[in-house]
Design a protein that fits this description.
Elements: E1 3-12, E2 15-25, E3 30-34, H1 41-49, E4 56-61, E5 64-65, H2 71-75, E6 78-81, H3 93-98, H4 113-125, H5 141-154, E7 159-163, H6 171-183, E8 187-191, H7 195-201, E9 204-209, E10 212-217, H8 219-222, H9 225-232, E11 236-241, E12 245-250
Parallel strand pairs: 3-8, 3-9, 6-7, 7-8
Antiparallel strand pairs: 1-2, 1-4, 4-5, 9-10, 11-12
Helix pairs in contact: 4-5
Length: about 260
Amino acid sequence: MMLSARNLSWSIGGVEIVEDISLDLHAGEFLGIVGPNGSGKTSLMAMLSGLRKPRSGDVLLDGMSMTLLQRRDVARRIALVEQQAETQERINARQAVELGRIPHKGALSPWSRHDDEIVDRALRDVDMEGFGKRMWHTLSGGERQRLHIARALAQEPKILLLDEPTNHLDIGHQIALLHLVRKQKLTVAAALHDLNHAAMFCDRVAVLKAGTLVAMGKPCHVLTPALILDVFGVLVDVELNGADGCHIRYRAPSLLAT
């Protein structure tokens, strides 16, 4: 299954947030979307998921314009974990994950043991199986974020879109979560802040700057000192590891003035 953006643009208040972006998300790959704050990552993710209609351009799901598809049909194929996803309902952790089954349920498809097994697996995958009865409002931000990921997995999508999924997580859970996502047999696009996470887990990275796509390719080819200085305004050293790996070392800010 392929997801494609064709000349996507979106603006608000006359300010161009995303400008003429085209890209293809290939079946089975993990695509990282990186860029500084305000570069358009969240707006792009919203358009790719179908939640936001582009001002111009189109999003294609297996070659068909998403505007021609019912929202339920899209939700059976694409799951989005938003950066500020939240719920005000008084539900417990398990019930929050069960929401991921909604696109698959209807009047003639009542809740089943199979649904329970899917929810159990999703909770186990994000290391939250012992939290099922905890009320949502008692959970930490990191715990809630892991449950949002579990909800998306319970949705059984073919494509998983993640908008800064490691927010509120400690470093151990950041690595574990991205490793979990990488192991899934899914097509994934994730907006990421940490360039080393992108280098470690992503097959390709797309780099945004001021709403435009300025580079795209394998992390070790794209994340060069020159590009990182231009896009993020910081000096780095990039160490290559093997044929495709790399590690980014940031220089102390005081060195920028020398």
